[in-house]
């Protein structure tokens, strides 16, 4: 694993996460950090596991100012789900992988919103799942790009 590509992709994902957006662009913003970690968890599962996802989640909590541990817990669950099915998932075509990416990031978002709802901000509708859709649509491009940079 190229640690420079790993760090660079996380840095770029963090930058894309904190860019101020308004209106429809803010609603459609993909879960960049979660999407990048999906790639690294799947393709470098010996190096990037549950603990690495948890630490990236803590970094994400600090980056965006959410309650400490919210993203960390949901990212750890995301890593667990990916690692339990990684051998099968790697055999799927990229479009089928996109469906799994939608499901995993959707579960990540639901867990985050559920816990955040107990703490302060209850979700009113299911609109919080829109980033899971845009993340799944971007998966083939992100996978191709990171695969080319990593090899």
Strand and helix layout:
Blueprint: H1 3-18, H2 23-28, H3 32-43, H4 50-64, H5 70-84, H6 86-89, H7 94-119, H8 130-150
Helix pairs in contact: 1-3, 3-5, 3-8, 4-5, 5-7, 7-8
Features:
151 residues, mainly alpha, 8 helices, globular, cell shape, Cell_shape_determining_MreD, transmembrane, transmembrane helix, Rod shape-determining protein MreD
Structure characterization notes:
This protein has 8 helices and no strands. It has helices at 3-18, 23-28, 32-43, 50-64, 70-84, 86-89, 94-119, 130-150. The protein is globular and about 40 Å long. It comes from Allohahella marinimesophila. It is found in: Cell inner membrane; Cell membrane.
User: Rounded to an integer, what's the Rg over CA atoms?
Assistant: 15 Å
From N to C, what is the helix and strand string? HHHHHHHH
Form type: globular
Q: Give start-end ranges of low-pLDDT stretches.
A: none
Number of helices: 8
Count of DSSP strands = 0
Protein structure class: mainly alpha
Give the count of structural domains: 1
Beta content: under 5%
Separation, N- and C-terminal Cα atoms: 8 Å
Please, what is the average pLDDT?
Answer: 92
How helix-rich are the residues, as a percent range? over 70%
What does the largest sheet look like? none
